[in-house]
């Protein structure tokens, strides 16, 4: 339920995505779009089997911060130079990763990582194409309250 070949629906038909340029940042967007948490992992060379029908996207290059594949840089719909042996896949495995929660806000994307329960963990922020940690210099309960509010906790 959290991994498989990635297929997209466009212009009345389902199709696959070519794995050219396919990486974990693209997987992160797919997992987010599907509402899945866990460790996003891109898989190539039809890891989950070859699809059938059209190959609808190629050269997908997400920064990892997008909310859906539509927002990523990619080829025009149907413009590709692939065969189904190159169908892209994704795993959003909730059992292997430390990522627990993501939220999108005006302040950027924030997540908790490495905690033992959904409401705790290391604070990480997404900035300029990469995830990074928050230094604890000057960190107070007020900062923690802001993060908790961003993540939807009281």
UniProtKB/TrEMBL annotation:
SRCR domain: residues covered: 1-93, 110-154
Mind telling me which PROSITE patterns this protein's record contains? SRCR_1, SRCR_2
Q: Repressor among the record's keywords?
A: no
Question: Which cell locations does it reside in?
Answer: Membrane
Tree of life domain: Eukaryota
Gene Ontology cellular-component terms listed: membrane
InterPro entries with a match to the protein in the record: SRCR, SRCR-like_dom_sf
Kindly list the cysteine pairs connected by disulfide bridges.
18-82, 31-92, 62-72
UniProt feature coiled coil, ranges: none
Q: Does the keyword Signal apply?
A: yes
Its primary localisation, in coarse terms, equals membrane
Keywords annotated in UniProt: Disulfide bond, Glycoprotein, Membrane, Repeat, Signal, Transmembrane, Transmembrane helix
**Membrane association type:** Single-pass membrane protein
Q: Which PANTHER family match?
A: SRCR DOMAIN-CONTAINING PROTEIN
Stated name of the protein: NETR protein
What is the scientific name of the source organism?
Chaetorhynchus papuensis (pygmy drongo)
The organism's lineage is: Eukaryota, Metazoa, Chordata, Craniata, Vertebrata
């Amino acid at each position: 339920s959290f991994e498989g070949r990635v297929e997209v629906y466009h212009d009345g038909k389902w199709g696959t995505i070519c794995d050219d340029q396919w990486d974990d940042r693209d997987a992160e967007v797919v997992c987010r779009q599907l509402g899945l948490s866990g460790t996003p992992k891109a898989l190539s060379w039809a890891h989950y089997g070859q699809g059938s029908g059209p190959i609808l996207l190629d050269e997908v290059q997400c920064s990892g911060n997008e909310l859906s594949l539509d927002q990523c840089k990619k080829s025009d719909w149907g413009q590709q130079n692939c065969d189904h042996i190159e169908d892209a896949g994704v795993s959003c495995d909730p059992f292997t990763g430390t990522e627990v929660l993501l939220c999108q806000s005006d302040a950027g994307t924030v997540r908790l990582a490495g905690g033992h329960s959904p409401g705790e963990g290391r604070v990480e922020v997404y900035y300029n194409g990469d995830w990074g940690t928050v230094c604890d210099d000057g960190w107070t309960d007020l900062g923690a309250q802001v993060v908790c509010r961003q993540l939807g906790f009281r």
